[in-house]
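ping. complex inputs:
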Amino acid sequence: MNFTRRQALAVTAGAFAVVAWPGAIAPALAAKNDAEDLIRKFTGGKEPAKGKIKLDLPEIAENGNAVPMTVTVESPMTKDSHVTDVLVVADANPRAGVATFHFSPASGAAEANTRIRLAATQNVIAVAKMNDGSVFIDSKQVKVTIGGCGG
Amino acid sequence: MAVKPRIKLDRKEARKGDLVEVKALVAHIMESGQRKDKDGKAIPRKILNKFVCTVNGKQVFAADFEPAISANPYIQFKFKAEESGPVVLTWTDDDGSKIVGEEKITVT
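pong. complex structure:
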């Protein structure tokens, strides 16, 4: 078999695409700590869908001791349709849990901002639970220059 | 610990149904329990693990904090103005003590 350089590249790229595909969400969850367990416990084993929830973090955090984080969930926040809880985990901290926010229709908007500690460059994952039981997920990688867990 | 949290509402008066933004900052060490002192002993964990905001006695927002929350925790959230009354923010420490701050909202 004689491949031209171009064909060879195309085949290689294709192979990578196939390898990457089954793990569309999985890479974000390839955790070193208890992040996955926490998420599973939170969702009750349900597969979270992408969308609705948005996690806002800086791409590069110079100081992992205080990284501003905003999580917003699209929802009318009415009695019939609202966000009940949002779980935030970090997959390379010594302990994955970061915070859980509890909302109700009285919150008016499912939005919260706080500052978090990140020990190293890692993915931060947010999972939202709606009152009808559906779950949504978003994740974001943050590059951390100086870790924020002592040491 | 007699700490006075700093709380700021983006407005003191709101129309019914308006969204009011709350920003709050409280001085606290938030010791994660992961750090070691110079003798190599772990410094015991001491964090504020729970936060609740009530307006006129009704809970509008709550959060559970883990050690991954920064020292001097800052929190920002919103609530829907329904009725006038006190906006009470309560942080609960690992040792059970509470830090409480209060503001007022007038709803017209």
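The longest strand of chain B covers residues 98-107.
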